Amino acid sequence: MFVPRKLQKRTHPGRAQTRTDEHYQDACAPQTHDTPAAHSVDVDAGKLERLVGFLHAVLNPLHVALSARDEARTLPTSTAWSDLAAAIAARGSGIHLARLLQLVPGLATRCKSISLLAEALTTCKTRAAAGWYGLDAFRVTWSDGYAEIVRDLVAADGIAEVLGSRLVYIEHIPPTVRTRPQATEYVARLLKDGADAGVFGVLEPAVVQHALMANKTAELGGRWVSGRGFFVLDARSVEYLCDAYPWDLAQRVHKGEPLRCLSWSQWERLHAMYAHQLAQQSAAPSVKVEDKWWRGTMLLLRLPVREGCLSVPESGDRTVGFWNRHLKPQLERHVPESIAYMHTHHDAVAIRTAHPACATQLLAHFPQLHRMPPSDEDDQWCQLPAKIHNAAHTRLLALDHNHPR
């Protein structure tokens, strides 16, 4: 029988395998490819995650309200954003998911079914959108805090008057929190004001200070540097965080979380003090080495460490990292952020503090410490580069406000 060339067996006759061998190898061969069902599950999971991220970005109350404000000022007729903002502000019985598909720009192209949208909204609600809305029988009902932000931002003449009482600046967020949704979930866990409390936005300080609070439009979804930022909450949650995690360093060391919080009014006050301090530094004459402003900042801890409040492991290389791990936490537990640098100096540890007042406080807490002789202190400082000199002097001047000399 004639067999087309494409169907002819290409193997050499001498190497041809029997059907039994082929069947045996097929049965023993490892399954390297996923089944169609597993592949479908992976695709569906990825699609759901992308949809959740999209919903968290576009349903952010600041994004909805500011988009509606911009379009109301440029377009004569109502738009999708203005219709969505009006429906949210009206609240009523909520919005059916079928209508939400039409109201949110770009949502209909990413989501083709109401069931998928319901699953994505449920997932988003349990994560970063907690406190934004409720979902029941394919109908979204917006929370009081969410609807108030949208309604007030759309109706107000200026953004600052609406956001002023709702902004809190948080610093020292753990490094594991790297994205806006993660930051939203982290701060939401800190709140204890009730189920309705939610985090309605994570913003860059520059965006808040130079754009939003100056009543200018800004890109809310731009790059965010983790570790700190402004968060949009309700006024009661702002007050709670500022009381629980105050900016005062002396109180912060007794808290479980290494956070510091500022309300917008406190932020403005601190920023004004910082600007005033910079103006004074620029107007002040350049620092001369002969001034010896560093006197009183260097301490010594004799080695080996005798019994007392301080304890240092006997084993280990006496490097800067060693002292930072074992000695610095003990010192700063009593005088927060007082240590600038530590290194081994002959038969002792040289401890450079940020301010002479910090050195005095450390001496009062730890009898094992001693002041470095003035001549040795001058030698130590004269060996340092100009960049370190300038940075240390700048910080010393900033601390003069709290520790006058």
Automatic annotation (TrEMBL):
Residues 1-13 have a biased composition (Basic residues). It comes from the Eukaryota. Residues 1-23 are annotated as: Disordered. This is Uncharacterized protein. It comes from Moesziomyces aphidis.
